[in-house]
Input
Amino acid sequence: MSTRLAPAHPPEAAGGSAPGGTLVEVSRLTKIYKVRPRLLSKPRPLTAVNDVSFAIEPGGTFGLVGESGSGKTTIARIIMGAETATTGSLRIADHHFGARHDDAGDAWRHRFLQPVLQDPHGALDPAMRIGRIIDEPLRVQRPLPDEKAYRARVADLLGQVGLPPAFADRLPGALSGGQRQRVAIARALALDPKLLVLDEPVSALDVSIQAQVLNLLKDLQDRHGLTYLLISHDLAVVAFMATRIGVLYLGQFMELGGRRSVLERPAHPYTQALIAAAEPALDQAVPVSGEIPSPLDPPLGCSFHPRCHKAQARCRVEKPLLRPVGPDHWAACHFAET
Ligand SMILES: Nc1ncnc2c1ncn2[C@@H]1O[C@H](COP(=O)(O)OP(=O)(O)OP(=O)(O)O)[C@@H](O)[C@H]1O
Ligand SMILES: [Mg+2]
Output
């Protein structure tokens, strides 16, 4: 048990660097929305993302895990340029993005990174043939000389995701969920991106299909040297894929670090509870109980304290900051095991 107070601002924002260099560096990102809890009530601030820093090494997979509403998609949307941060900054390769909109940077970003989202059904236009869905980004951004070239590129991309070329003529409605997600991945690869933002890429799929799609993503990562931001509420998915892991709770990192540190030596009671829930056979920790509090009325002190079996008086008044608990390993808990 440590009673050392974390500095108000960790020297290099905790988690802001990764062994092996960084392709993506997220620095002290905060996103505050104004929401009206009821139609006629005054807008109130909702902190969706609270001072989040992390880094992704080239060719690595950063796994962002957390319950619904913890801020995962908000972080992804800021990285993709679909949303601007309230404060904080972002570096992708050698491009820097601040809180202000940057058209030139956005154009570059659209080539450099591509999303693969949760709902393969909603993401694919039901009236468009698969071939056109896959080659559309090329037609818009990097046109090929003729139709034959498009057909060849589509056949190549379908092959890369394990689908036969004849799928180019089908409509999305004729495909299974797993096949649709393969099409979404093929489309994401069309412009040769370096970074894929995978927001719950398998959560709409049957468990048996999830492993196939995750293995495909691993193969593609190896073949193309891709870097992934992988978002999931499912720790098992993140554990299978990630090189580094960040555990989010109400917009803040509870724990952050290399995959093995976080999974084998979890320092935060919340991470310990997530691991216990993912592996019910293990009797390591008390599974987390109760509901996640409203982000409009976050608890004082440590945001996890109302659900924490280790909580003490200090946790109700003093917010723990991320502090080092090992090499490339941080936790935000006054009583984190080091
Ligand atoms: N455009 C918005 N306006 C107001 N509040 C928002 C907006 N987008 C997200 N939020 C709020 O921000 C918080 C974080 O939402 P976010 O979608 O990032 O969570 P998430 O971790 O992706 O959840 P899920 O697992 O359900 O997808 C939530 O409380 C959500 O209600
Ligand atoms: Mg989400």
In short: Confidence is low (pLDDT under 50) at residues 1-11. The first strand starts at residue 24 and ends at 35. DSSP finds eleven helices and twelve strands in the chain. The chain has two domains: 1-93+197-338, 120-193.
